[in-house]
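Hi V.,

You were right to ask for the full record rather than a summary. Here it is.
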Amino acid sequence: MADAPVPPAVRPRGTRRWWPWALAVVALLAAAAAAGLYAGLRWVLYSEAGTRWALEQAAARLPGFTVREPLGTLAGDFQAAQLTVPAGTGRIEISRLRWTGLRPHGWQWTAPYLQLSIAELTIGRLSVQPGPPSGEQQPAGAPASLRLPLGVQIGALRVDELLLPGQAVPVTGLRARVTLGDAHRVEAFSAAWNGLRAEGQARIGADAPMSVDAGVRVRSDPAAAAASQRLVPEWAESVQAELKAAGPLAQLAAELSLRMQDQTLQAGAVVTPFEPLPLSRLDARFAQLDLARLLAPFIARAPTTSLSGSAVLTLRDTGQPLGVDVDVTNADPGAWNALRLPLSRAVVRASGEGQRWTVQRAELQAAGGAGSPAGRVTAEGSWNAGELTLKAALDTLVLEALDQRLPPMRLSGPVEFDMKPATASEAAFGELRVSTKLQGGLTQRGRAGAPAALQNQPVQLSLEATATPTRYRIASLDARAGDARLAAKGRAERSSSGERWAVQAGLQLQAFNPALWLPGTTDSAWRRQRHALNGTVDLEAQVPAAAPHAAEMLRQLRGKLDARFDGSVLAGQPANLSLTLSADGAGRLESRGQLQAAGNSAALEALVRVPADARAASDDDNLHLTLDAPSLQRLAGLVEGLGLERLQGSAQLDASAQGPLGGWIAQAATPPAGPPAGSTAVRPALPAFRTQGSADVRDLRFNDMGLDRLLGHWDASTEGDARIAADVKAEQLRLPGLHLPSAAVLADGNTTAHRVQLDAELRPAMQQQAIAQANAQPAPAPLTLRARLQGGFEQRGGAAPSGWRGVIEELALRPTDAAPAALRGRDPLPLLVAENLRLAWTHEPGVQSLQVEPGQLRLLGEVLRWSEARWRSTQGEQQLALEAEVEPVAVTPLLRRVQPGFGWEGDLRIGARISMHSEPTVTARVEIARAGGDLRINEFGVVQSLGLSELLLRFDAAGGVWNFTQRIAGSNLGRIAGQQTVRTSPTALWPEPQAPVDGQLEVRVENLAGWGVWVPAGWRLGGQLTAQLGISGNFGSPDLVGRLEGRQLTARNAIEGVNLRDGTVRLSFEGETARIETFRFSGGEGTAGLQGTAQLGENPRAELQLQAQRFALLSRVDRRVVVSGEASVQLGRERIAVNGRFRADEGLVDISRADAPSLSDDVVVRRAGDAPLTNEMQPAAPAADTSRALELNLLVDLGERFRLRGRGIDTRLEGQLRLASPRNRLAVQGEIRTEGGKYEAYGQELEIERGVLTFVGEVSNPRLDIVAIRPNMDVRVGVTVSGSALSPRVTLFSEPPLPDTETLALLITGRSYDTLAGNQTLLLQRAALALLAGDGSGEGGGNIMEMLPLDELSVRQTEGAVPDTVVTIGKQISDRIYVGYERGLSAAAGSWQVIYRIAQRFTLRAQAGQDSALDLVWMFRWN
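Predicted structure:
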C-alpha cells in the first residue's frame, strides 16, 4: 500500500512580520531620546534657569565647586562674582568672571569633536591655591597625543590679576589669544609682574612629534609698575631677557639670553622633560651674576655674588659619555653668615659613562671678606657602580672666613671618604669609612680669645669612623689645641634579632674650651667667656631599636651613664659636676647628681619606676632636689653665652616628692589611645602622692621676667586624711604679659576637706613698663583678684585620688581706685564675680571629666547663667556640653562708662544664648540678639534715635559646616547683613585657620552719626556708607572681593577745630589687595585726597599718596591753618614711613585763647565714698609706646600768610621746618622767623626787629633769638630774648649802652630816669618786679615769686624832701593773719608788722621797730 502524500503546510491565520515594527519603535525611541537630550542641553546652555540648575548640580556633586551670583547663560554671555574649582588637592579661585559670545560649532567625528568659540573671556582675579601633597608622584611618560576632545578658541583673554603659589605680588594685565585644537597656540601674549613686562607667543602640535615653537621676551617696564601702583624692586630694574624653545616636545632645544643691570647670561640647553635626567646638555656663559638679585623673586635670602665663567654639562643616554666642566670666579666673596659666598674660584672637571665616572679635578678656592684668601680645597675621586672613593685635601683653610660662626682656626690635611655598595637590596649603602687628620693653628681672632698658654699652640683634629646599616663605630675622635684636648670613641651595634642597640662611648676632656670649637654667633657672649672643662663621661647602654611610645622606651632602657667634671671653669666661673644615671631594663631609673658653679650648688636624688602597660605603678618612687644659690648673678656669663638675656638674684629651694612618679611619666609619655580591640586591660589607678618643701627667692631677674621676693612652704599628700598645707607669698612678680605687685596663696586642711585662697593685685605689663621707663613711684594696681574655694579629693582605697569635688565660694576680679575711669566710675564695675560654683573633676584610667553644676556668674556686671557645663576626654576623644544664656543687658550704662561725654541715652537691651555639644561631632549655636529697646544720642540738647529694629550675631555648627550670620538694622543706623560658611572637620571645636570660607557681607548705613561709638570722644561723624563684599579663601586669612563706597561724609571735632565735609570714599577689595580709588574730603575752600593700595593678609602693608590743595586743616577761631602739599605714606606691620612736603597757604594761631579746660596727667579725681588716699598712691604713668617704627621725613613751609597773635604779640611767621623721627621720637630741624610785627608790654608797643626760633631736635624747646625795640626814640632801647623756650633769658639793651635803670625808664616811660615823677617811679619799679618775677603764664611755674615762699615783694619810694626807697616783703599765714617786714635802703633798722583780722570790719595791727605801735582799725564802706 503506497504512502499517502503529505498535504502542504498552511500559514496560521493573522501571522505578520513583527521586526520592522520593532525597528521602527526603537528608532522612534532613539529619536525621542536624542530630541530630549538636545532639548535638555539647549535648556541648560541657552536659558538662565537651566544654567542655574546645572551649576547647582555641579556644586552638589563636585566637592569644592562653588559659584556666587551667576548671571546669564552658559552659551552666550555669562558672568559670576566668584567661581571656585577644585584642582587636585588644591583649588582655583576666580573672581569677576565674565565671557561673551560663547557658541558651540564645528561637529566632527575625530577629536576635537566640538569647537567652542568665545569672543572675550575676562577674569578680574585668578588665584591658584595649592593643597597638601597627595603622596609620591611617579614621573609621567611622554604622551602619545595632545589632542583634546573639545576645541577652544578665545578671541581675547584678559586676566587682571593672577596670583601664583608662593608669590605675594600678582601677575597683572595678562592678555592673549588662545586656540586649543589640532595645534595649540598662544598669540599676542603679554603680562606684567614686579615692574617687568613679558611678551611672546607659543605653538605646539597636537600630534607626534608635537613640535614646539615658543618665545618670550621680558623687559623692565616702569610704566606697568606705575599703573599697578606698586614699588619696583631693585632687582627688576634694567632687565632684558629672551627665551626661545624649539623642536619636538620630548627633546627641546632652548636658548636663554639675559641682561640684568650689570649681569649677563647666555645659555643653551637640550631639555628632555620625560627622562629621569630632564637636562641633556647645558652650555652657559655668564658674567657678574649676583645670586641675590637673580633669585630674589624666588628666594628671600640668597647670597650676594659676582660670578663670571662658564659651565658645560653634557648628559647622554645610558652608555654615552658624561662630562662636566665648570670654571667660575667670584669677585665679591664673603662669609656665609653675612649672606656672601665664601669662594673666589671653583673648578670642577669630571667625565664618565653609565655607572662609572671620575672626577679628574675639583678645586675650591676659599675667600673671606674683601676677597682675603682663606685657603683652598682640592678633591679627586670616582664612582663605580655604587662604590665611591673621594680624596680631598684642605690647604690652610680658614674656617671662620667661610662662616664666622665656625671655629677661628686654620686647618690643613687630608679627608678621605669611601663607600662600598650594599649587598642587601633594602640597605641604602654597604659600608662607609671616613678618615681625616687635620693640623693647623688659631687665627688672630682665635688667639685673642684664647688663654695665653694656647695662643701659639698647634691645633689638631683627627677622626676615624666606619658605618654599616647595623654597626656604627668611632675608632677615635681627637681634638687638640695645645694641652687642651677632647678624646672620644664609641660604637653602636644592632643585635642579631634587631630588637636592641648596644651602645658604648667614652669622652675625656682636658682643659677643653668648647667655645673654641663651637663659638656660636659673632656677637655671642659665649665666645667672650673663659671655659676649661676637665672630666670624663662614660656610657654603656642597651637601647630598644623600636618602642610604641616614649614610656616604653624608658622602661626597656638598660645601662649606666657616669659623668665627672672636677676643677672646670665654665663662663669664667669654677664649676664641678657629678652625675650618675642608671637603668635596669625593667623600668627602674635612678639618678644622683651634684652641681657646684660660681658659689651656687644644687643636688638631686631620684628613684623612678616606669610601669608597663596595664601594670600598677610603684608607690615608693622619690625625688629630692635642693638648691642653694646665693649669687645667681655670677652665672650671668653662662646665661648670656646660652643666648639668654640676664640672670640675677638668689634662690633657696628644698623640695621632695614621694609616690608614683614613674606612673605619672608613663601616663604623660603614653599616647591617649584605647586598648586593643577585644582587650579588657585597664590601666590601674595610681597610688597616693606626697610632696613637701620650702622656697625663698629674692630679687630674681631672668630674661624679661622678674620677682622681688617669694617666700613659701608646702606639705601636701593625697593619702587618706593626710594634711594639706601651703603658704606662698610673692611680691612684684613680672611676667611677659602681666605684673603682679603682690600675690598670696594659702591652703589648709586635709585630703578630704581643705580650703584654698588666692589674693593678688594685677597690673598690665604695658603700664608697668611705662612706670619703669619714667622712673616713677609704683602706682596702685588697677585690678585685684580674689579666689576662695573649698573641697576635697575623692579617694578610692589606698590609691591616688580619682577626682576632686568642691565649691568655688568666691572668684572676683574687681577694679581699684587706680583702674580706668570706665571701670571705676561712681559705682565700680567688677569684671568678674562668681559665688558658690560647684564643680567636680574626675580622673580615671583613660578618662578625665570636669562638670560644673548649673549656676551663674557676673561678667561686667551682667548675669551669665548656665544649665549644663561639662567636659570629658575618653581615650583622646573630646566631649563638650554647654548650655548657657546671658540675661538681657542694658547697654546704655556700659556706653556711658566708655564714652561719658558722648550723650548716650536709651533702653536698649541685648541678650545671648550659647549651646555647644561635641560627642564627638560638634553641634553649636551661639546667638547675641537685641531683646528690646533702642539707643539715642543727645548732642547739645538735640536727641537722635538710632531706630534699632534688629541686632543679631549668630553662628551655627553641624556636621563640620559652620554658618556665621550678622544682621544689624536701624532707621538712622543703616543695615549690615552678612552670611559666611566655613567647612571643617566635624569634630573640630573651632574652624582651623586653613578651613575654606565662603560668604558675603553687605553694609548700608544712611547716617554714620549713629556709629560714633567707634571714634574717640569729641568727634562726630556723618554721611552714608555702603559696601558689598564677597568673602572667600581661608578662615584664618579670608579674601575680600567687592567695593566700599561713602557719600556726603563728614567728620568734625568742634573743640579741636576740625571740620571735614563733602567726603567721598571708594575702595575696591580684590582678595588680599585693597585699592583706594577715591578718598576725598573738603575743608574750607580746599580739598584733601588719598590714593593707593593695601596688601591684606598675614603681612599687611599699604602704599598711599596724600594730596592737599588749600585744605583747611584747622578752622577754629583762634587756630586756622590752610595747607597745600603732598606726601607718600607706607604702612607695614612693623614700620610706618611718611615722606612729603606741605606749605601753609594761610594760618593764624592766637595764643591769647587757652584750650578747652582739661586736667593734668598727674591729677587724680576723688569722689565721695572713695577710699582714703595714702602716701603711696601716685597717678599711673602713661602707657608705654608700643607703636611701630616711624620713619618721618616731612618738610613744612609756613608760607607768607601765617600770623601769630596774642599776649601782646602780633607778627607774621616765615620759615621751613623738617620733621624727622629718630628712634621714634619727633625731631624738628629748621628756623622760624618773624616778619615785622609788634609786641605790647608794660603799656608800650614795641616793634619786633628780629625774631628767630631755631629748632635743632626737640620740638618743645627751640632756641630763641628775639629783639624788640621801642620805636621813635633818639636812643635805641629794647629787650632781647635768648636761650631756649624752656629756659629763656630776657635782658635789656640800649645803644649807646646805658645803666639798667635808665634803660628801663626809657623803655617803659620814654623819659630819662632823672626826670621821672613819683608815680612814674612806682610804675618803673613794678615793671622791674615783673621782669624779675615773670608773668606766671608758663606751665612750669618757675618765676621767682612762685619759688620764694612770699605773698608780697614790693619796692616803693617815699615822699618828702629826702625820698627813700623802701622794700617790703610779706606772707599771708592764714585767712586772718598777715606778717610783713619793710626797711628803707638808707635806714639803720626796719619794722615788723602783724595784722590780725578780728571780724569783717575790725582789724588789729601791731608794729615793732623804729616806731612801735598797736592799732585797732574799724572800717565802714558806703557808696
